[in-house]
């Protein structure tokens, strides 16, 4: 772990991976760290608007397995008719129906947000389910598209370019500024996908 101070009231803590970053962010919030923002990413946590001494003291008591990432569970109904289902089946060595069964059988967790407001990087697929990104990204991926890249899963909150393999779509609103917490899948949120009826 390495701490990089960014001015007098912010620091970036470098950790091993996204799970450790989400763990540190959740753990520090649970301990009441006074910070305007705690933002986990792929291998860092930004503490903004905070006391350097308080962060340093807190970090002496943290270990990567210290936090409980058992946040609220959100169920996401999906129309599994994405254009890349057969490609994913090929990578996984199974049928399209089996892709759907596997994807709906795993509980994922949002570790960090990025790319666009409301886009969360969901972890929990086993390493043997890793898939490559498309060799050529699409110019426009429809809003609500559920995709895979490496072992990550994500849902595009708005139409945008993208190179993830698309399994299907959902109508669940991922970003709503009228909600108390605009992002539906904030870090720590558990996610289960299900076949839309």
Q: Overview of this structure, please?
A:
- The chain folds into two domains: 58 residues, Gyrase A, domain 2 (2-Layer Sandwich), CATH 3.30.1360.40; 123 residues, Cyclophilin.
- It is built from four helices and 13 strands.
- Strand 1 and strand 2 form a beta hairpin.
- The mean pLDDT is 92.
- GO terms for molecular function: ATP binding; hydrolase activity.
| First-to-last CA distance | 46 Å
The mean pLDDT is 92
Provide the helix percentage. Answer: 10-25%
CATH-derived topology of the largest domain: Cyclophilin
Largest sheet, if any?
4 strands, antiparallel
Which CATH architecture of the largest domain?
Answer: Beta Barrel
Number of domains: 2
* CATH superfamily grouping of the largest domain: Cyclophilin-like
Strand residue percentage:
25-35%
Strand runs, count = 13
Please compute the radius of gyration using only Cα atoms: 18 Å
Describe the strand arrangement of the main beta sheet, using strand numbers: 1-2-4-3
Structural class: alpha+beta
Oligomer: single chain
* The CATH C-level class name of the largest domain: Mainly Beta
What is the succession of H and E elements?
EEHEEHEHHEEEEEEEE
Spans of at least 5 consecutive residues whose pLDDT stays below 50 are: none
Count the DSSP helices.
4
Q: Based on Cα principal axes, name the global outline.
A: elongated
Keywords: ATP-binding, Hydrolase, Nucleotide-binding
Protein name: KipI family sensor histidine kinase inhibitor
GO molecular function, one term: ATP binding
Pfam family, one: CT_C_D
Short description:
The chain is of the alpha+beta class and 197 residues long. Helices cover 20% and strands 34% of the residues.
């Amino acid at each position: 772990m390495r701490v990089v101070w960014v001015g007098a009231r912010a620091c970036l803590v470098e950790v091993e991976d996204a799970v450790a970053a989400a763990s540190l962010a959740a753990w520090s919030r649970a301990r009441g760290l006074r910070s305007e923002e705690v933002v986990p990413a792929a291998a860092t946590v930004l503490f903004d608007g905070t006391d350097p001494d308080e962060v340093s003291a807190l970090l002496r008591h943290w270990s990567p397995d210290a936090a409980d990432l058992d946040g609220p569970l959100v169920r996401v109904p999906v129309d599994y008719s994405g254009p890349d289902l057969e490609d994913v089946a090929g990578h996984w060595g199974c049928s399209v129906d089996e892709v759907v069964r596997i994807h709906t059988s795993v509980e994922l967790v949002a570790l960090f947000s990025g790319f666009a407001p409301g886009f969360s990087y969901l972890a929990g697929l086993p390493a043997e389910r890793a898939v490559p990104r498309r060799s050529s990204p699409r110019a426009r991926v429809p809003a609500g598209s559920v995709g895979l890249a490496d072992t990550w899963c994500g849902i595009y909150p708005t139409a945008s370019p993208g190179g993830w393999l698309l399994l299907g779509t959902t109508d669940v609103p991922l970003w709503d500024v009228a909600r108390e917490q605009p992002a539906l899948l904030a870090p720590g949120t558990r996610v289960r996908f299900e076949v839309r009826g």
